Amino acid sequence: MRQAKGIAKPKVMISEKALNERLDQLAAEIERDYADSERLICIGVLKGSVFFLVDLLKRVRMPLVVDFFQTSSYGTSTKRGEVRIRKDVDVAIAGADVLLIEDIVDTGYTLRTILELLRFRGAKSVRLCALLDKAEAREVDVPIDYAGFTIENQFVVGYGLDYAEYYRNLPYIGVLDEADIED
After folding, report:
1. Residue 168: is it exposed, middle or buried by C-beta count within 10 angstroms (0-12/13-18/19+)?
2. Can you give the residue ranges of every domain in the chain?
3. 11-14, strands of its sheet edge to edge
4. At a CB cut-off of 8 Å and minimum separation 6, what does 87 contact?
5. Rounded CA gap, 108 and 114, in Å?
6. What is the pLDDT of residue 177?
7. Which of 98, 113, 117, 140 is most buried, judged by most C-beta within 10 A?
8. Does residue 108 contact residue 51 with C-beta atoms inside 8 Å?
9. Residue 117 in contact with residue 125, Cβ under 8 Å?
10. Which of the residues 55, 97, 103, 106 is marked catalytic?
11. What CA–CA distance (Å, rounded) separates 46 from 167?
12. Beta bridge partner(s), residue 71
């Protein structure tokens, strides 16, 4: 892949092959666990989950609905866990099985809030599928029902994850050298 001027090439952490193998496994687990579901709604958290969601759900061979949710932090003036909804789901989730699909779980604050909101709205069940579990960074308990990979507390990019909106389109998960990350 050609790099833009001033944009460093990340070191591969999880290869495209490893991602594809794990996606096959996760899809089989989801099919097994939701085999009796009358209505499965898969909700991706924008923007990072898009690549993961698409590749994962192409492997799931059962009827399902796809929607998206996008949040942002209010900033430093509010407590952690408070989020602003930038894009809400368009489908009614009351009585449905909901699978929230996220690229990475680190501190857990935002995801805890989203999961609580989905339960509050009357979902029959709510589960979380995350490509990456950065367990060392966790500050609040967020149960991950389907985890792709557990990783160390490093800044990762690729396969939907970005740095300054770059790198999302990499077909692998990579690590940027700390010298390449500006504070």
Report:
1. middle
2. 20-73+85-149
3. 11-14, 173-175, 156-157
4. 46, 68, 69, 70
5. 10
6. 79
7. 98
8. no
9. no
10. 106
11. 15
12. 85
* 35 residue type, one letter: A
Residue 20: its H or E element: helix 16-33
- Which residue in 59, 77, 75, 57 sits closest to 67, CA to CA? 57
145 has catalytic annotation: no
- pTM score, whole prediction: 0.90
> Which residues, including other chains, have CB under 8 Å from residue 105's CB and lie 6 or more apart?
111, 128, 130, 132, 133, 134, 138, 142, 144
Say yes or no to pLDDT of 1 above 60: no
Tokens of 130: 């995350």
CA dist., res. 89 & res. 69, Å (int): 6
Highest mean pLDDT among 17-21, 79-83, 84-88: 17-21
Largest CA distance in the chain: 51
Identify the pLDDT of residue 183. 56
- DSSP code of residue 49: T
State mean pLDDT over 69-97. Answer: 79
Q: What is the pLDDT of residue 80?
A: 57
Q: Is the pLDDT of residue 83 over 80?
A: no
CA distance 64 to 5: 42
Q: Which DSSP helix (H) or strand (E) runs through 137?
A: none
For the domain made up of 20-73+85-149, give the CATH fold: Rossmann fold (3.40.50)
Q: What are phi and psi of 65, to 5 degrees?
A: -110, 140
Residue with tokens 């989730």: 93
